[in-house]
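The passage that follows is intended for readers who have already worked through the single-chain material. We present the inputs for a multi-component assembly, then the predicted structure in tokenized form, and finally a short commentary. You are encouraged to pause after the input and sketch how you expect the pieces to fit together before reading on.
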Amino acid sequence: MKLPKSQIFLLVALLVAGGFSAFSGRIDPYILDVTLGVGIAITLASSLNLINGFTGQFSLGHAGFMAVGAYSSAMLTTTLGPKLGASAGVLQWVLFPASLLLGGLVAALAGLAVGAPSLRLKGDYLAIVTLGFGEIIKVILQNVDAVGGARGLVGIPDYTNLFWTFGVAAVTVYVVWALLNSTYGRGFLAVADDEVAAEAMGLNTTRYKITAFVVGSFFAGVAGGLYAHLKGYLNPGGFDFNKSIEIVVMVILGGMGRHVGVIVAAVLLAVLNETLRSFGDYRMILYSLLLILLMLTRPQGLFTWTPRKKSAA
Amino acid sequence: MTELLQQLINGLSLGAIYALIALGYTMVYGVLRFINFAHSDVFMVGAYIGFYLGPRLGAGTVWGGIATLAAAMAGSAVLGVVIEKLAYKPLRNRSNLTVLITAIGVSLFLQNAGQKILGANPRAFQFPVPGGGQQRLFPETQLHFRSLTISSNQVIVLAVSAVLLVALWWIVHRTRIGTAMRAMSFNATAASLVGINNDAVISFTFALGSALAGAGGVLYAMNYPSIDPLMGTLPGLKAFVAAVLGGIGNLPGAALGGMLIGLVETFVSGTRMSTYRDAIAFAILILILLFRPAGLLGKLRVEKV
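Having made your guess, compare it with the prediction:
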């Protein structure tokens, strides 16, 4: 049987992730931590790229969906984990993926609830609604005692490893890529190029926009689950507007609607975030100036040299 | 009954401030069809201008307060025009998304540069009295009507907002530039064909909207006497909801929406749901988008190609 190139890529990525994972004990913990952060960033940026890049919408609440996924999956592993009485290995290889899936599904549901009303309309409503959603999720998490309230949720087992992180990243990249190259997926690009024309061609644009948004939110939720089990604790303040902006900057820097550019930008910014940690507040000033300057001079992104394939006019 | 009236007055004075900010969103949307994300930060800068210039302009007296308010409005208007010229004007005729992202960039820049330059810690919006002690921007007394207590600050907020709304109505409906604004929001291309300078109208719109936001910033700081560089985000979000509630692009709608949001929020804070007061505006936004996307006073536009 001959596999398509993209599926070979997925298989190779999973094998490599698994291979490296076996040796993770020998990797310097700090470097391992940064590497895992890079993997999560790739998942976040690729999934946001589906919404903000390929479908031409603008979500400012990716961190909010990440928070939903992070809290859901952490609640599952912290409450159910100890009761099962299974060994740590079983928990890491059975319960953890189930919790990631749960985090993704809850985030997708939240995405449906937020996206359905706002994506029916043309225009920039989604940006404001998702910005509001990010704030509201923070307020709710701070007020619900069952998830630790403002103190945060602690004692989350550290199940996140190289295999799960890069496995998820590879699956995300694959799904986004395969989706866009399917017959159905061409609709996303059509919506981004010209919504009115797409509608005139008979596409249900609202449905395309909502599908992209829900799929993107799902992977943000899964990434949140990975993040929760990497850091070991969660606090609502960690998923603020700045976190969403960080992901938006990755997508814009890499070039909205580009696969490779966005991955490069995600890796670059995730590493830069670590190295620039001592600069603290200047980082956000830099990001904001970067956004303005890119839009004024290079709206196609920094890592984009060839023009995106345009259908013949 | 007394409590109801008390809450009504609190709600109206909060709503008046939301209305001032919402007008800026709605006016810019009217002429340029995009959400000016940086508007909420112009509001914040307005409050800081009041904070720094207040002592020099004689805060604590009625005339000093008015002078401070005027200075904040002028400063905000200049900032609004500068933002428009530097960041938005080069992007005329580019896609909506590009302008939106730039606006978010400007907003983030003002917030974070503000934290660096002005300090991230909240400051009390009060001014030292020469003999020692602190005083507010306007001389403050409590007015009593039977069992009802109204702070003079709330009266000032309502009075200033009313004056500004009337002035705005006069500018938009009784002056040449106001007529040009309305023409442009109706059809920008046709307006330029009859000799209206679109760029001048846009600059004027930004100046007007930003001045209102600056006044809103000072009034907000006066009633909730603490300011910080991120203070604009939540009021800005709520004011935007107010603009959508009233029908975006519609001036009376923005004023009405602001009042309604202020009232709802105040009444919710008075109940056991008070910790969710910031979530209410968001719930309202979702409901409007579901049931009446054109807003209370707006008309649905059909997009023409």
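Commentary: Strands of chain B lie at 123-124, 127-128, 134-135, 142-145, 148-151, 226-227. Chain B touches chain A through 46 residues (CB under 8 Å). How closely did your sketch match?
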